[in-house]
Design goal:
- The protein has 896 residues and is an alpha+beta fold.
- The N and C termini lie far apart (81 Å).
- Helix 4 packs antiparallel against helix 7 (201-217), helix 4 packs antiparallel against helix 11 (272-281) and helix 12 (283-289) crosses helix 13.
- A hairpin with a 2-residue loop joins strand 8 and strand 9 (146-149).
- The strands form 15 sheets. It has a six-stranded antiparallel beta sheet with strand order 1-2-3-4-6-5, with helices on one face.
- The protein has 14 helices and 60 strands.
């Protein structure tokens, strides 16, 4: 039945028709309860009227509703209204692959990109024990964020028994000859489907092979004038080889597709994951084969300025990629020349190279792609929006990078071992995003991260800051597991920058100290680790038998025996790489593929900051204080002084106090790692973190600091109650972070649940209430709760919020949503009341969303912010690529 616009189905209101799908008509509708657009799909009568099939379908729909994947259109629910059964799904907007294929064959790189995302979707479904059984170009939607596979798993779930394709298949296709109607999408059916045999995941792999063949060649693998001849072709004939139909198709790709189309399921690929790995492996051949001009069919790309014209840059990229693809496929023991080229990407206003300790670039393991951070240029007519740093991916053969949507604020880039994913950190989360685009997926909640390595079996290791050292997490689930803990007594500050060795069970990493970084080796089997006695940071293992590492912004190379751990003499390899320092760990803006292809940025890294006053209208006045790497601003109770953390050239944090005008600055602490100052109400004493523990000290006397709290995990003091009797602090562990309150003379009491990550606790000026941020809703929001008290916390922010601060009178709250400063009027007595948040202004002042507010508010209502020196919007960052860098260097590196 056809539904008119305005028709109500329960709380869904039909907006317009979207066409016909595998189960019936599909409509765009509005969910009047949640205020969102959805797609509703009415079930065919033969399904709705068969109780047995309907029950099975409903059970399968429940399974599908729990299947979340960026390349699968989400099924929200299965509902009934007025006797009509229907599905409620995500609206997938875009063009179907079927429509795109009407124009002919796709560029090989584009076909691989789409095929990889389809494979990732059906692999996720197969792991949930769901088989599609109707995979075809018409069920693949190409959206702005990537591929969306539609109608997942429904074909199998509604058939009561396996049966022949010409009886009750759920999907209708257009007649091949224009006469009659064939039930079922026979063009993509595997032989076992046509015979009515049991089907499994390998049936979808056959269909994937058909779709790949059609994308690459522009024709279907099996032809027929009618149902009978098509069935005969599928059962008995072999498709023409890809390399015959499409001369540019690499032979390995021909082999991958032909194995998908093996008649015997036992001789096909046994999992979609296997197909995806092979498609990734032939990516270099695809880049080599792609024709100039074919890029007009690729995803929308953002251009960046360059010293070369784009025509020359593109031609250079194709030549370089062709050389790289040939080189990767040949014996690396045969000398090949080094190829070096550069390209520019825009920084945008206030967008420096970045504060992430792994820098703004990464190279895929096979050297075929580069991921980098750049600023999206706002489209014409889009006003009032600050430039946002996001991830771009560029293939070696292409002159432009592809924007990965949903990666705003990213840093710490790294690739998965198969190159199919780009990992990054943003907003307190370790995340991953498909290299071809799609929705980012969370891996774990994290604080400041000191390097990340993605190893075999989806094991991820990262430096988790002070004092937790290295931590491992798995994509398959489970709690984070600590691997190492720095030894403060031995001068160690942090462990970071892990690198898996080829055996997958040994990890190189860097030890940060006050005197610089050293490289160590960890055994995952035993948990033991040993200092290799090598001064440097960010180790990278290169095959066969070398370690590259950084020293003071210079890249070094040394031969390394995996069995004996013996090293040769150190060789200077590349000078002047952009570098910085954090917690004694040097971090440089470079990356290396295991086979020795280098990508790096020259210049400086880490932006200095300057305190500035900002009024409620957003007008800024800089304070005459020296530039520096400032953190953790707090105005004294009297309003006459400022406490802050400041990192020196060696990445060592110190607590400083200065007058409110920036004069008279002096360090408070001793020769230790110090952060997070919090004023006591007397305005004379600071509580702060020393190597992960809490101490305090009077700032105007030559006093000895005294211990406040010593615990195994890292504590960050934030706020004293107005009467000076209670201290609110944040504690960070491998399991996340939570807020505690320490009464004077008592034991710490937890304020928040360990299930969620919480930060930035702050007592109200009049006492009795604490504001903080927590991600218990799935994103960071601002909450207020009574203290002491048992009442449930009240959510203040809407749509995200972090870093809350009270006004001096306690009648207003401020918080940040990225660059936006928000304000909320609030009453706490006799009961808690608050207005809707309003935006005061937006500007990219320095921020650590998962840490503490890097701002404070004065008595007169002005905001004390950390300003970043502006750069011109046209300023660029130059990325240099050196293919076969190791080939030239290893001839110069002594092996004894």
């Amino acid at each position: 039945m056809a539904l008119e616009a305005g028709t109500k189905l329960g709380h869904y209101e039909v907006v317009s028709s979207l066409g016909a799908g595998g189960m019936g008509e599909v409509y765009r509708a509005k969910d009047t309860k949640l205020g969102r657009e959805v797609a509703i799909k009415l079930l065919l009568d033969e399904v709705s009227e068969d109780a047995d099939r309907l029950a099975r379908f409903e059970r399968e729909a429940k399974v599908l509703a729990g299947l979340k994947h960026p390349n699968i259109a989400t099924l929200y629910s299965f509902e009934a209204a007025g006797g009509t059964r229907f599905l409620v799904m995500e609206v997938a907007e875009g063009e179907t692959l079927e429509k795109l294929l009407e124009k002919g064959a796709l560029p090989i790189a584009r076909a691989l990109e789409i095929g990889s995302q389809i494979g990732a979707a059906i692999d996720a479904a197969h792991k949930a024990e769901i088989v599609h059984r109707d995979l075809k170009p018409g069920n693949v939607m190409l959206t702005k964020t990537g591929v969306k596979v539609l109608d997942f798993g429904l074909a199998k779930s509604i058939e009561p028994e396996p049966q022949a394709a010409n009886t009750q298949s759920p999907t209708r296709m257009q007649p091949i000859t224009g006469q009659g109607s064939i039930l079922g999408t026979q063009l993509y059916m595997a032989p076992e489907q046509l015979e009515g045999k049991d089907t499994d995941a390998r049936t979808d792999i056959w269909a994937l092979g058909c779709v790949l063949y059609e994308m690459i060649t522009g024709e279907r693998p099996f032809q027929g004038d009618n149902q009978a001849s098509l069935t005969t072709a599928i059962m008995a004939s072999e498709p023409r080889p890809l390399s015959v139909v499409q001369e540019l198709a690499p032979r390995r790709l021909d082999w991958v597709v032909s194995r998908c189309l093996a008649k015997d399921p036992e001789r096909r690929w046994q999992s979609a994951l296997d197909v995806g790995i092979e498609l990734q492996a032939v990516g270099d051949d695809a880049a080599d084969a792609e024709e100039p001009g074919a890029h007009s069919q690729t995803a929308t790309r953002t251009r960046s300025p360059s010293g070369l014209t784009w025509g020359i840059a593109f031609a250079l990229g194709v030549l370089v990629a062709g050389f790289a693809a040939w080189n990767f496929a040949t014996d690396r023991s045969v000398y090949s020349p080094t190829v070096r080229f550069s390209f520019d990407v825009p920084l945008g206003a206030n967008q420096g190279i970045g504060s992430g300790v792994d820098g703004p670039i990464a190279i895929s393991p096979d050297g075929s792609r580069i991921a980098y951070l750049s600023t999206r240029v706002a489209p014409s007519g889009e006003e009032g929006r600050e430039p946002v740093r996001q991830i771009f991916v560029r293939a070696m053969a292409e002159g432009e990078g592809t924007l990965l949507a949903g990666t705003e604020g990213a840093q710490d880039l790294f690739f998965s071992p198969n190159g199919a994913w780009v990992g990054f950190t943003a907003n307190g989360k370790l995340q991953r995003v498909p290299v071809g685009g799609g929705a980012p997926l969370d891996i774990a909640s994290v604080g400041p991260v000191y390097g990340v390595a993605w190893g075999p079996d989806d094991l991820i290791i990262f430096g988790n800051g002070i004092p937790s050292g290295l931590v491992q997490v798995s994509l398959t689930g489970g709690a984070p597991r600590p691997l190492t803990i720095p030894d403060p007594g031995g001068g160690q500050i942090a462990h970071g920058h892990p690198e898996f060795l080829p055996d997958g069970t040994t990890v190189l990493f860097a030890i940060g100290t006050k005197d610089g970084s050293r490289i160590a080796r960890l055994s995952l089997d035993t948990g033991d680790w040993v200092d290799l006695g090598l001064s440097g940071s960010e180790p990278r293992y290169l095959s066969p038998g070398y370690i590259a590492f950084t020293q003071n912004g210079n890249l070094r190379l040394v031969s390394f025996d995996l069995d004996t751990l013996e090293m040769g003499r150190i060789q200077t390899a590349e000078d002047g790489i952009a570098a910085g320092n954090s917690a004694g760990l040097e971090h440089a803006s470079f990356d290396l593929s295991p086979t020795g292809d280098l990508v790096f940025v020259q210049g400086t890294m880490g932006l200095e900051r300057q305190p500035a006053w900002v009024d409620r209208e957003g007008h800024e006045t800089l304070i005459d204080a020296p530039l520096g790497l400032y953190f953790d601003l707090q105005i004294s109770p009297a309003g006459d002084r400022l406490a802050t953390s400041r990192t020196d050239a060696h990445g060592i944090g110190k607590v400083w106090v200065m007058n409110i005008d920036g004069s008279g600055a002096f360090p408070v602490g001793e020769d230790e790692i110090e952060y997070n100052p919090a004023w006591r109400p007397d305005g004379e004493t600071l509580t702060y973190t020393v190597n992960g523990d809490m101490f305090e000290k009077r700032v105007d006397e030559d006093a000895v600091r005294t211990e406040v709290l010593l615990r195994d995990n890292y504590q960050m003091p934030r706020s004293w109650s107005p009467d000076g009797e209670s201290l609110a602090f944040r504690e960070v562990s491998a399991d996340g972070s939570r807020i505690w309150v320490l009464p004077r003379g008592g034991l710490p009491e937890p304020l928040t649940d360990a299930t969620y990550d919480a930060a930035s606790p702050k007592f109200a000026p009049q006492g009795g209430w604490i504001v903080y941020s927590s991600d218990e809703t799935g994103q960071s929001e601002v909450w207020v709760r009574r203290y002491p008290g048992t009442e449930r916390a009240e959510q203040i922010s809407q749509g995200g919020g972090s870093q809350p601060v009270w006004s001096s009178t306690g009648d207003e709250l401020y918080y940040r949503v990225r660059d936006r400063m928000m304000a909320v009027e609030i009453e706490t007595e006799p009961e808690l009341l608050h207005d809707e948040p309003i935006e005061l202004w937006s500007h990219p002042y320095f921020s650590q969303e998962d840490h503490f507010p890097n701002y404070d508010v004065a008595r007169d209502g002005r905001f004390l912010m950390l300003a970043i020196p502006e750069v011109e919007e046209t300023e660029t960052m130059t990325i240099t690529v050196v293919l076969n860098w190791l080939e030239e260097l290893k001839r110069l590196v002594p092996t004894d």
